[in-house]
Every structure is written in C-alpha cells, then in structure tokens.
Amino acid sequence: MASSSSAGEEAPPTRIMIGVNESSIRGYPHPSISSRTAFDWTLQRIVRSNAAGFKLLFLHVQIPDEDGFDDMDSIYASPDDFQSMNQKEKIRGIHLLQYFVEHSHQLGIQCEAWIRKGDPKEVICQEVKKVQPDMLVVGSRGLGPFQRVFVGTVSEYLVKHVDCPVVTIKRKADEAPYDPIDD
Amino acid sequence: MASSSSAGEEAPPTRIMIGVNESSIRGYPHPSISSRTAFDWTLQRIVRSNAAGFKLLFLHVQIPDEDGFDDMDSIYASPDDFQSMNQKEKIRGIHLLQYFVEHSHQLGIQCEAWIRKGDPKEVICQEVKKVQPDMLVVGSRGLGPFQRVFVGTVSEYLVKHVDCPVVTIKRKADEAPYDPIDD
Which stretches make up the UspA domain (chains A, B) (predicted)? Predict the structure, then answer.
C-alpha cells in the first residue's frame, strides 16, 4: 500500500470538473448519454472506492435560446414573462444537476454543481481558469469523421484550449443512437 | 465512503498506460521531464493512496536511429556489430523503464513495462489496441502555437486516434527548458 507516500489521503482531494448537459431527445431533467458516460467512467475508473480522495465539480452550461423555441406554448406580454422564462430554464438546469449531486452523495463523494449561460466551450474554459480543477472530464458524442467536419466538437476545442488535463470519454458504439446528434 | 458501491476494490484494477521516453538533454537512462510529470500526476491525482486500485503499464517507444549517431564512437566491421548496437540501445531502454518500475514498486502499485521500436504515435496506437488500457497518460512538451505548427505533437495525434480516454499532461512553465525541444 502507498499509505506512507506523499500522495496519501492527507493531501487535499483531487478536484475533477465534469461538464454535463441534458439529453437532446428526452430533454430536461434527463442527463445526456455522454454526460452519464463521463460521470460513470469517473466513478468506476478513477474514484473507485476512494470517495474521500476526490471532489466532483459539475458544470452545466445552458445555451441561450434566442428563438425561445423551448417556450412555444408561452405568451409573452411583458418583460416579466421573459424573466419567468429564464427562471424556468434555470430550474430545469437545477433538476439536471440534481441527478449528479444525488448520486455523488449516495457514494459519499464531496461535490459542487453550478449553472452558467453561454457558449459551452468558452464558458468551460473560463470556469476552468477560475476554479482550477486538477482535471476536466467531458463526454463526447463520438461523431464519425464525416459528421466531425460539420459539427465540430466541444471536446476537441477544450483539449486544445483548457489549462488543466482534459479527458474525453467517447461513447461506446452500442450506446450511440442512430443519429449521433440525438443524445 | 463508497465501499458499498459497484466501484469497490473487488473490481479489477484500473489499468493506466503511461508513455515514457528518455531525456533529450541528459539521454538514457534519465526519463524526460514530461514523462516524469505524467507519472507524478498519475500518482498524486489519480492513484493517491489507493495503490491496490490501479495497475500502471509503462510503454517506451524507441525511434529507430538510421544514422547510428548514438554510436559515433563505435566501429562497425561485421553484421554482428550492428546487432550489438541494437542490443545496447535496448539495454538503455530497460534502464529507463527501471526508474518507473522501481518507483511503482516502492509505492506498492502493480506495474508492467515494455519496449517497442517505431514511430511513437503509431506504436502507441497499436499497443492501446492490443492491451486495451482504461486510460492513456502522456506528457507533452507544451509547445507554443508557433512551434506546434512545425513540430506537431504526439499527444495531439493520440487524442484523436486512440480508442481509450487520453490525458495529456502539459509541463508547468517553470519546468520547461529554454528550448522546448530539449526535454
């Protein structure tokens, strides 16, 4: 055992930031397959039984919905209505984070979770700079080379631009929906 | 504690492959700064006190030296002389691996180490396919955008082409020699 090493449990926990988003098919509050894959991988391969050695930081970035398509059935008559729309969106995000926070608590792993608005790749870069995690874990839809050209991936951008080590967890083939944009 | 979870210690250890090479300034058997940084990061941030939960797989790829510059002081009079050159090169590689294996043993972490010849990025891809580690850790010289264009990096190639999650550990600025090619 390495209990006498400098990497012992007296050291502050390893802080792992995990980027999470909602399922594009099922919507809020369901996490996307790639978010769940990234979370499960972190638990099974890294944290393992050493719950006290790690702290998980869940970041959910909401993309501002300029068209308001998410609220097609709402009527906007005053600025307050838009306010309430933003509020609803935020509540959805909180319910998404609940999934990850509850699971972490059940396993006795310290965690924090928060929501930001903006372009996911830029916001994640900013948050990494501010929060300084030891490592960033992000899921990836595992696009083929053809789709990659048009869609690009947040994860590829992050590997290049983020200061801390980044782990991209690709989905297994059998978890991928027919259309990889659905997630 | 997560002892009751499915990620408990009864699960097989997480197998982490670490690509290691020799220092380009000091030569064999000294590991490069980026190899040591990748190794130390793995111990401190991932393995921590959980030695039994991990197995480290050290892969050293030797680039075939067609010019024989490493053996400027040797005289080649027969095919056997080249044989002995290859042998010497291999012994140097073994001494490099000794550094990592001895450190792992001192910490009670299971490990394996081996040498392959060829183009590092291609060989690492092949070995990942064969060995199927849970994760690959590689160091990076942390080249600036200018040098990156000309030099390229093994780590960028691996992130794109390797099947398992890849972590690239960049060197801290204060560990970088003046010329980033020196390592």
Answer: 32-170
- CA torsion sign for A10, A97, A47, A153 is negative
Cis peptide before A29 (omega within 30 of 0): yes
Which residues neighbour A96 within 8 Å (Cβ) at sequence distance 6 or greater? Answer: A20, A21, A22, A28, A29, A30, A31, A60
In tens, the pLDDT along A123-149 reads 999 999 999 999 999 988 755 555 444
Residue of A50, A143, A161 to mutate, interface with B, max B Cβ within 10 Å: A50
Look up residue A170 and give its DSSP letter: E
pTM for this entry: 0.84
Q: Could you give the CA distance from residue B29 to residue B19 in angstroms, rounded to a whole number?
A: 15
A138 within 8 A of A170, measured Cβ to Cβ: no
DSSP B43: I
| Lookup result for tokens 């838009």 | A82
